[in-house]
Amino acid sequence: MIELYSPKEIALLKKKRNVWIGIAVAVAVLALAFCIFFCARTDTSNRDRMLLGTIISSTLGGWIVITLTHFVIEDYRNAEKHIVAVLEGPREYEEGPFEWTGEHLRVRKGISMTGIRKVGAVKGNLYLYDAKKKSFQVERAVRVCTVYGFVAAYEVSDDLD
């Protein structure tokens, strides 16, 4: 059985998420520092220019922080939760052969995934976390281990080499 998930991944994802949190905090602090700089340098002769600089700094910094939080930090948190669920969930087994369905889903506040089904089946009922797609050899899989409908491990056929 080739395992697709390991507990080490959780610690690695936490480290990556913490790095991105640090980057987001640094961007926020930098934007605040620019705003303070513009406010401290303001007098009646340059108030319009300094106001513009303050608005641009706060808007740009805020959007960068929001973007990092929404598209990077939350993705790492969702991946962590997914991996914990797969590692701790009940395992079921299904015999193959399998094929890709061509279906690609992205769950809100969740992960992105690709559909898998038994060869000849009309509808796919299994999913593979997109980050695991390179590790999964669908054409060689003869048996899969699933947790909550996600492929967690698989067996390969030796006679397909």
List the helices and strands and how they pair.
Elements: E1 2-3, H1 8-40, H2 47-88, E2 92-95, E3 98-106, E4 112-118, E5 126-129, E6 141-147, E7 150-156
Antiparallel strand pairs: 1-7, 2-6, 3-4, 4-5, 6-7
Helix pairs in contact: 1-2
Strand order across the biggest sheet? 1-7-6-2
The secondary-structure class comes to alpha+beta
Morphology call = elongated
User: What is the count of distinct domains?
Assistant: 2
Poorly predicted sequence stretches spanning 5 or more consecutive residues: none
| Helicity, as a percent range | 40-55%
Alpha carbon gap, first and last residue: 16 Å
The biggest beta sheet reads: 4 strands, antiparallel
Total of DSSP H or I helical runs spanning 4+ residues: 2
DSSP, total strands: 7
C-alpha Rg (nearest Å) = 23 Å
Please write the string of helix (H) and strand (E) elements: EHHEEEEEE
Detailed description of the structure:
The protein is an alpha+beta fold and 161 residues long. The protein folds into two domains: 2-88; 91-160. The chain is 47% helix and 25% strand. The protein has two helices and seven strands; from the N terminus they run E-H-H-E-E-E-E-E-E. The protein has helices spanning 8-40, 47-88; strands at 2-3, 92-95, 98-106, 112-118, 126-129, 141-147, 150-156. The strands form two sheets. It has a four-stranded antiparallel sheet. Strands 3-4-5 form a three-stranded antiparallel sheet, with no helix packed on it. Helix 1 (8-40) packs antiparallel against helix 2 (47-88).
